[in-house]
Amino acid sequence: MLSCRSVCAGLLALLPMIAGCTVEPLNAARSNSALVSGNVAAGVSDILKATDVDPVNDRTAQQVRNRLLFAMNGGELQEGGQYRVALDVRTFTRTLSIESNSLAPTSAQVSVRASYELVDKSNGQVVAFGRRQSLAAYDRTPQSLSNKRAQRDAQNRAAQEIAELLRLAIAQDIAQL
Predict the structure, then answer these.
(1) Is residue 35 part of a domain?
(2) Which CATH number is 110's domain given?
(3) Shortest CA distance to 166 belongs to which of 133, 121, 142?
(4) Which residue range is the domain that position 169 belongs to?
(5) Is 5 among the domain residues?
(6) Would you say residue 27 lies in a domain?
(7) Is residue 104 part of a domain?
(8) The sheet that has 52-53: what strands, in order across it?
């Protein structure tokens, strides 16, 4: 059995570590950061609403961009934002299993990888960057149209997931500025 002294000593040893922990909402306003303009602190969600996302040139990248914009601002971009996001989205498809008799693929996986740069519009300097990846599996059949549609659906699912991951990463980056 543990004595009262050993339990108290253990709690006292943990106290300095716990005292250094702080928990606060990601979208909280911070008065001691670069988000402050004058005497009014702007929240991360307000900055996200005014953040632009550069145009892209690929269907899956467009899915990521559209979902990211909607996740950041709900479809209503505010003018005059301080930041813009540059995206580089790449899509890869690979076969996961093959039928032994016909050697036809029976399942596949779509991988969507997105790299982003958060750029300060005032000076064009990259203030944060990162990379995220999302995977979505799908079944393949002998029908080519069915396979194309399943692949597109998997790309859409992966794009939706990666857009949410990017929103969280960008919000975290903005909160740390």
Answers:
(1) no
(2) 3.30.160.150
(3) 133
(4) 44-176
(5) no
(6) no
(7) yes
(8) 52-53, 83-98, 105-120, 126-139
Query: Taking the model in full, what pTM does it have?
Result: 0.73
Do residues 62 and 79 lie in contact, with contact meaning Cβ atoms separated by under 8 Å?
no
Total structural domains in the chain? 1
CA angle 84, 127, 28 (to 5 degrees): 80
Sign of CA dihedral 45, 54, 156, 78: positive
146-177 burial, b at 16+ Cβ within 10 Å, e below that, comes to ebeebbeebbbbbbbbbbebbbebbbebbbeb
Q: What is the pLDDT along the chain (177 residues), one digit of tens a residue?
A: 567 777 777 767 766 666 665 555 555 555 544 444 433 335 888 888 889 999 999 999 999 999 999 999 887 777 878 899 999 999 999 887 777 676 677 888 999 999 999 999 989 999 999 999 999 999 888 888 998 999 999 999 999 999 999 999 999 999 888
